[in-house]
Structures are given as C-alpha cells and as structure tokens.
Design a protein that fits this description.
The protein has 11 helices and 5 strands, in the order H-H-H-H-H-E-E-E-E-E-H-H-H-H-H-H.
C-alpha cells in the first residue's frame, strides 16, 4: 500500500560503540594483592575475579559453572554449556548460552587449575557445593560481583570496572595471540565481532610487533665485493651534470 519505504529514506542508524573499561595486567595484579585468602569470603571473591580475568567468560556463563559438569581439573578444561537465569537465591534455572558459539571448551593454564583445586577443597570444608562461584551452595548474583570489583578496586587504587569489564580485560591480556584463538575463547560466532570489538587495542600491538622484530635478523656484510657486475654501464651522465 505504501509506495515508498520510509525506513530506506531515513537510512541505517549508526551504532555507537560503548567504551567498556578494563584492567591491564598491572592493575589486575594490584587488585589481587588486596585479597586475604585466609578469609573464606575473600577467597570466594578472589576466585571470581581470577577466573573472569583468565577465561573471558560472560558474566552469566561463569555463574552457571558447576564442578562436576563443567570443570575437568585433570585435563585442564572448562566447558561452557549454560547461562544462569537467577530470579532469587532459591529460584534459578540454567538456560542456553547467548549464542551457539557460546558453547565451548576453554583450555585452562596450570596456575588456574591449582587455584581451582585449592578453592574446591576449601568449599568442601563447608559442605557439598555444586557451583564454582558459591560460598554457601547458592549461585552468585551479578550485583555481588559488581560489589566485589568496586571494593577491591578502591583498595588497590585502580579504576572500578563493570563485571563484563573483566571479559574485556581477558581480551586485552591475550591481544598478542591469534585473533581466531581469542574468538574461540570468548565464544564469538564471527571473527568480525572479535576484531571490531577490540580493534582499539591493536595499534599498540603494531608497535610491539615492530619492537619484537628489532635485532631478530642477524647478518654480517662482506669485506670484499663478490659480484662481477660493475653497475649500469648503459647509463651515461649528461655533460651539464659533470
């Protein structure tokens, strides 16, 4: 019925990229120094901050992690299968991940494995707890994570970030790695998402690559001429150039 498409006249509305603050490796280390692992709640808080930074999981992916189903300490892997839907502390469900690519297996470093083993033993001292992010058996609220971040950022004298900022921190930490690896760890469906989301980090990498190239080529020039070629013999100077 309408002869012209008004939407085409308006055109596409440009999307503004929202800048998400993240922690550098140095800032992360400062935050870690504010935790006292002798205290059970601070140990729980430490695990949350550490695992987000070292895996880049989405907030609800990490809160859904369970020891038996998702963590393989022997083979050093973490499997993302669910996303937590939390209505209240006693009413929660495990739903699908944000995208199909969100279902993934992430290799864990040895440090993270050892830290998880210690935390698992600590949890078991308080009873049977299924969730990795739990201090009393119940799943963790997103607001709890935000409060932990703000509290320890202030103690460390670093900028506070959002919970999802730890995911960006992981990407920043790995930015020198192959973008395809970062894509798989973050659970992006398309490499374009990875590159567009973190393109602002790549200029620094450009200089790091250039610096790494410095001194990598070893050579010694010859002390004598070995080629018989005497130059371009067909070239002649003009009289006014002599």
């Amino acid at each position: 019925m309408i002869k012209t498409n008004r939407a085409k006249q308006v055109g596409a509305i440009p999307k503004e990229k929202v800048k998400v603050e993240f922690w550098t490796k140095e800032e992360f280390q400062k935050v870690l120094s504010t935790f006292n692992l002798d205290d059970y709640y601070e140990h729980y808080s430490f695990i949350i901050i550490w695992l987000y930074f070292m895996t880049g999981l989405r907030v609800n992916e990490a809160t859904a992690l369970r020891w038996k189903q998702d963590i393989d300490l022997e083979n050093r892997t973490l499997t993302v299968c669910n996303s937590l839907r939390l209505k209240n502390s006693d009413n929660w469900t495990l739903g699908p991940t944000k995208t199909k690519a969100g279902m993934r297996t992430i290799a864990l470093d040895t440090d993270t494995i050892e830290i998880l083993k210690v935390w698992k033993d600590r949890q078991e001292g308080f009873g049977k707890i299924d969730f990795v992010f739990s201090y009393d058996g119940r799943p963790t609220w997103k607001s709890t994570i935000s409060r932990i971040i703000r509290r320890h950022a202030k103690l460390a004298a670093v900028k506070p970030i959002q919970a999802k900022g730890l995911r960006h921190s992981h990407a920043s930490f790995l930015i020198n790695a192959n973008p395809l690896i970062i894509k798989d760890r973050l659970g992006h469906e398309d490499i374009k998402t990875t590159l567009s989301s973190y393109s602002h980090l790549y200029p620094n990498v450009n200089f790091e690559i250039a610096n790494s190239m410095t001194g990598s080529i070893n050579y010694t020039t010859s002390h004598e001429k070995k080629a018989k070629f005497q130059g371009n013999q067909s070239f002649k100077y003009k009289k006014d150039e002599i």
